[in-house]
Task: inverse folding
């Protein structure tokens, strides 16, 4: 079966994301990527002028998928929006525990690694994070409008804190090879989103 231009590019990006999840961006060599993806070197450079350009495209793809999943999960619910937010983080925690995977998400894996090495990749990480935070903010605003939560801060500040807390807990879980940092983060998120009294 002949693949289209998009299929080949997508295949390289997906393969690269999997390898970066295991080895990091710098630990993933282009030769290894091409071998695992089973594409010639010319195909890589046809789609990406450099490894850095590939990294930017990979992060943009990763965050686009992540953002769509988060948005659909939070918006596809007419009931208690506070509970939906808590359920999202509980689902993430459950997934982490079931898979026993300490690779963590790509943003956790690459944040510290590439921010000082590639300005373009740093910008992609920043833009992706901001999109996720904006979606969390909208969900928190809906929860406030519903009267299902009482925030001690603005929805924007609270969304940033939720994102940073979970990102930090994910990193600590990766370091410790334990799920307790994420469990503690979930409990803190529940405290940050109190129900009205």
Result:
């Amino acid at each position: 079966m002949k693949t289209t231009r998009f299929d080949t590019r997508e295949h390289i990006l997906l393969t690269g994301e999997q390898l970066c999840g295991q080895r990091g961006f710098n630990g993933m060599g282009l030769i290894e990527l091409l071998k695992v993806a089973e594409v010639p070197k010319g195909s890589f450079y046809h789609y990406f002028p450099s490894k850095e350009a590939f990294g930017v495209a990979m992060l943009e793809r990763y965050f686009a998928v992540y953002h769509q999943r988060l948005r659909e999960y939070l918006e596809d619910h007419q009931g208690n929006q506070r509970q939906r937010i808590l359920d999202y983080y509980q689902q993430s925690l459950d997934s982490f525990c079931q898979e026993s995977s300490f690779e963590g998400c790509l943003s956790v894996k690459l944040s510290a690694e590439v921010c000082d090495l590639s300005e373009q990749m740093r910008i992609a990480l920043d833009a992706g994070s901001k999109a996720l935070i904006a979606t969390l903010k909208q969900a928190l605003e809906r929860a406030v409008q519903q009267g299902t939560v009482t925030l001690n801060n603005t929805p924007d500040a609270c969304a940033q804190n939720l994102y940073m807390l979970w990102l930090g807990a994910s990193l600590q879980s990766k370091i410790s090879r334990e799920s307790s940092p994420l469990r503690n983060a979930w409990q803190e998120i529940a405290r940050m989103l109190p129900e009205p009294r």
Residues 65 and 171 are 21 Å apart (CA to CA). The domain at 51-192 is CATH 1.10.357.10 (Tetracycline Repressor; domain 2). The two ends are 61 Å apart (CA to CA).
